[in-house]
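Subject: design request, 390 residues
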């Protein structure tokens, strides 16, 4: 069977890292016919591509490809267009009252966990990670959170489309779902909220020199990239903490260092893509201008040439040069927000609910670009017989 399609088999989806290691050992840089792309599995090669915007483009028009207008955003442009929209957003990210919002969010998380603690068990993905991530990202944007039962399936369909290179049937539904998302976010600029990122950007966009469609698409990307990456981070990290003996206790010692390790250990963004625009040698192979390149960040995070004992979850690992937030010109704008969010949710679990544990194996979604859970049944209650001591 094809080694990339193989990654979606349920037994491998649960833990793809040994399969990545086999790919890396067989050939660290290889051409994959079905993807029509080079595949990179080493940390050094992925880092080289992410930080070389001259030879590896995010804007596929530089390789002669057509990019439809609804897709032009901060994620798909390169300098100089990228610089202007990135600065507009960056300025808005910096201007937000992170501390005030964080305190409010922490109260909401504490209340939600207290309510969930009354139940025998609950699905940590659908009842904690997804609502908290959506609430956090929409509050940051300055808009009310949409209904979960509308937003979550639509957003998942967009994510499924990221793997359309392997499963072409995922493409069309993703295009329709993206159109729904665009319609939902379409009025934000014309009728902006009073506070939050949208308010900040709407006020400054007319003088920024950035095309209005690009601003609109980029705000939509903040919602989608932020929600999907953050909810998956909360799910993956909780699964690692609750299925590794002693990890929840160890998390309390240094939450910021621990969050970095949880991202390295089981990152939400497992793959990233660029297109080569000038012939380059990587891992003994010549990548030609026009060739697509797929960066398996998940494999890079378990590269023994970069990380000592990569299969071990070491919550005190420093330094931790993971690529989970990307690197270079397109590095994640929400990284510090995501670290704070994960610190709040996982910190509240570790501090207030030390009896938290899995009652079933986490179940993974069949996605390869973004890695995340479908369900994870958890209890916060003490084990029977231990109640008397609490
Ligand atoms: C908390 C909310 C988050 C927001 C608002 C957010 C927003 C963004 C935005 C706007 C970009 C595009 C930057 C650009 O292209 O110049 C980006 C890139 C990225 N984000 Fe985030 N993000 C969030 C959380 C996360 C999390 C939790 C992860 C994974 C741990 C993550 C991983 C990435 C990666 C890998 C990229 C680089 C993509 C590339 O190189 O093409 N993000 N993020």
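Subject: RE: design request

Done. Sequence follows.
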């Amino acid at each position: 069977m094809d080694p990339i399609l193989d990654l979606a088999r349920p037994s491998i989806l649960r833990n793809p890292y040994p399969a990545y290691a086999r790919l890396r050992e067989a050939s660290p840089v290889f051409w994959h016919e079905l993807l029509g792309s080079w595949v990179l599995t080493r940390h050094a090669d992925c880092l080289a591509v992410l930080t070389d915007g001259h030879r590896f483009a995010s804007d596929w028009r530089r390789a002669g490809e057509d990019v439809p207008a609804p897709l032009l955003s901060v994620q798909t442009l390169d300098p100089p267009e990228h610089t202007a929209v990135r600065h507009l957003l960056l300025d808005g990210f910096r201007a937000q009252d992170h501390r005030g919002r964080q305190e409010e969010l922490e109260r909401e998380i504490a209340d939600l966990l207290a309510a969930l603690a009354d139940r025998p068990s609950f699905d940590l993905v659908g009842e904690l990670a997804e609502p908290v991530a959506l609430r956090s990202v929409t509050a940051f944007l300055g808009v009310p959170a949409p209904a979960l039962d509308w937003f979550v399936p639509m957003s998942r369909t967009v994510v499924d489309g990221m793997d359309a290179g392997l499963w072409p049937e995922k493409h069309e539904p993703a295009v329709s779902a993206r159109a729904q998302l665009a319609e939902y976010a379409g009025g934000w600029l014309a009728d902006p909220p009073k506070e939050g990122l949208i308010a900040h950007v709407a006020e400054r966009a007319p003088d920024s020199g950035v095309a209005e469609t690009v601003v609109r698409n980029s705000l939509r990307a903040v919602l989608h990239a932020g929600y999907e990456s953050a909810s998956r981070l909360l799910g993956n990290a909780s699964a690692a903490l609750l299925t590794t003996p002693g990890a929840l206790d160890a998390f309390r010692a240094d939450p910021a260092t621990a969050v970095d390790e949880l991202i390295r250990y089981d990152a939400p963004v497992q793959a990233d893509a660029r297109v080569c625009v000038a012939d380059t040698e990587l891992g003994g192979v010549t990548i030609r201008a026009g060739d697509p390149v797929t960066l398996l960040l998940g494999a890079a995070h378990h590269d023994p040439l970069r990380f000592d004992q990569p299969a071990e979850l070491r919550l005190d690992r420093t330094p931790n040069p993971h690529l989970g937030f990307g690197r270079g010109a397109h590095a994640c704008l929400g990284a510090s927000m995501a670290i704070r969010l994960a610190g709040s949710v996982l910190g509240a679990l570790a501090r207030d609910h030390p009896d938290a544990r899995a009652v079933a194996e986490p179940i993974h979604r069949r996605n390869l670009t973004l890695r995340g859970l479908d369900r994870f049944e958890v209890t916060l209650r003490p084990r029977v017989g231990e109640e008397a001591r609490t």
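The pocket of protoporphyrin IX containing FE is lined by residues 58, 74-75, 86, 137, 221-222, 225-226, 229-230, 233, 263, 267-269, 272, 324-326, 330, 332-334, 337-338, 341 (CB under 6 Å).
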